[in-house]
Amino acid sequence: ARGSLNSLKTNINISSMLGRANASLKIDQILDIEEPLNIRGTASTKDLDVGSIIGNDMVRHATAAASFDVKFGRTMNIPDIVIDSLTIDRLGLNGYEYSDITADGYFNSETFEGKAVSNDPNLSFFINTMKYQQDSTDYYNLTTDIARADLNAINIDQRGRSEVSFTSDMGFTVSKDKKINGLGEIKGILLENEDGIYNVGDITLTSVQDESKYDLSLISSFAEASYSGTASPKYFINDFIGLTLKKELPAIFKDTAYVWNGDSYKVNLLCHDMMDVLAYAMPGLYIESETSIMTEINDKGEFSANLNSGRIAFKKQYFKGLNAQF
Fold first, then answer.
1. Which of 121, 116, 113 is nearest to 103 (CA)?
2. Could you give phi then psi for residue 53, rounded to 5 degrees?
3. Which site from 49, 110, 229, 230 is most exposed, i.e. has the minimal number of CB atoms within 10 Å?
4. Is 70 exceeded by the pLDDT of residue 247?
5. What is the pTM of this model?
6. Quick check: 118 and 98 in contact, CB under 8 A?
7. Closest-CA residue to 62 (of 43, 82, 39)
């Protein structure tokens, strides 16, 4: 380390059985309490066994390099972070070694923007995300272009050949009174397995949320779905399990304790032509067009559901003319 009392330069080199890590740093404003600390420099790793260090077998060795500029502390509640460049030459994750990934971006109290590009042989993508403020409203946007994702090769789908590609544009706003409005589009969805390639088209997603109401919808050529509730979908799942399975089949649960908090929900699904989606996601399953499912948990904690379908089949087993109420 060298430099004045208010400015310091240091080089850090660590080498062990777990790999190597290096950093070259310049630290400014050490003594000036009126200014935030400023750390600039570069850092890199070589075959560093990150999983052993953090105790997570999902992550393994990493070879990466980054240059950055960070201001934090003292007069700043939220740090300013600039990532000039991040290059990942090797990253073991979930049994697959990713390569050729780059990223950059910045973050501060009012805005952030970042992008990432992958040219990995089995995962090719471009991602751009940003946030900014205007008239006391926060605006968020995420755009992605997944040119190719081999889900079998990267150990997400173990069924055999499984590839996807699509583009998406997701945006939402958060107003001063914490009301959230969101709109997203997923376009050009292509799915591929050992039996063929399926063009399932586009999906449009909308959401409106405040402290006491959640409204979500999905519209596509193969299905329409809607969710309306006084709590998020996570709580709907918990209440559904608590009011049905834990109540009627307590023997299958180790912990049957459950308290309903008074939330109510309505969830609807209307199927159109599901053949291509099902041929990829669950070969052998057939759901006839216009099949509908309606579920509700009312303000008394009572669960009800209705299933209507001309035909539902899995391989040689099938049901016809379904009109079931629960």
1. 116
2. -70, -40
3. 110
4. yes
5. 0.87
6. yes
7. 43
